[in-house]
Write a structure and sequence with these properties.
about 230 residues, alpha+beta, Glutaredoxin, Glutathione S-transferase Yfyf (Class Pi), Chain A, domain 2, 2 domains, four-stranded mixed beta sheet, 4 strands, about 10% strand
């Protein structure tokens, strides 16, 4: 049986991706939660299970797989249906996953994932506006080109949706309302049973990581609106 190490569910976007793709694989696994540092720094103790001291990290017997994209590909090699069956849709899904994995720096830094929160921190920076517009473009084009078979990016729920799930939580936290089919997709993704399961667990957590708390990061901007 696989073992998946994940961090705090309220904050850890990478853990969410790793958990979702493991759920999607259908492979039996146990979940091993670890507390992320309240200072936002790496914990040397994590090296006991993860070469990078980061989560998620998947153990399959003696095989250790780290990084959410690597975990996704490792599982997809062993379990069918995780990527779209159509070759063109599959290439698209892989590309938008890779873009999310390596890009969107403003979205990551200016909209930390904090599932429990609802805040308005507008005006957004120009860089963040561009990232939001690009996500909206990806969602709309995915739905238009490949979404006929279901409510998700390429129809059925796939690795691509797992990779954009943290963005869905971020958009809800910061009040982003994407236009077109992207808005309907956002609602469908947040309503997925696995996202609701993750969210329910996140809302039970009490740990506070100040580096990822919007009301601490943006205390001055929020105070100015009151």
């Amino acid at each position: 049986m696989h073992k998946l190490y994940v961090g705090n569910k309220n904050y850890s976007s990478w853990s969410l991706r790793g958990w979702l793709v493991t759920m999607l694989s259908g492979a039996p696994f146990t979940e091993s939660p670890v507390e992320l540092s309240t200072e936002g720094t790496l914990n040397p103790a994590f090296r006991a299970f993860s070469p990078t001291m980061r989560v998620p990290c998947l153990h399959d017997g003696a095989t250790i797989v780290w990084d959410s994209l690597s975990i996704a590909e490792y599982l997809a090699e062993r379990h069918s249906g995780m990527w779209p069956a159509d070759a063109v849709a599959r290439a698209w899904a892989r590309s938008i996953c890779a873009e999310m994995h390596s890009g969107f720096p403003a979205l990551r830094s200016e909209m930390a994932m904090c599932i429990r929160e609802r805040v308005d921190v507008r005006p957004w920076s120009a860089a963040l506006e561009r990232d939001i517009a690009r996500v909206t473009e990806i969602w709309n084009e995915s739905r238009r080109r490949f979404g006929k078979g279901g409510p998700y990016l390429c129809g059925a729920f796939s690795i691509a949706d797992a990779f954009y799930a943290p963005v869905a939580f971020r958009f809800r936290t910061y009040g982003v309302v994407p236009g077109g089919d992207a808005g309907t997709y956002l609602e469908a993704l947040l309503a997925h049973p696995w996202l609701r399961q993750w969210e329910a667990a996140a809302l039970k957590e009490t740990a506070i990581i100040e580096a990822d708390e919007p009301r601490i990061i943006y205390r001055d901007k929020i105070a100015a609106k009151q």
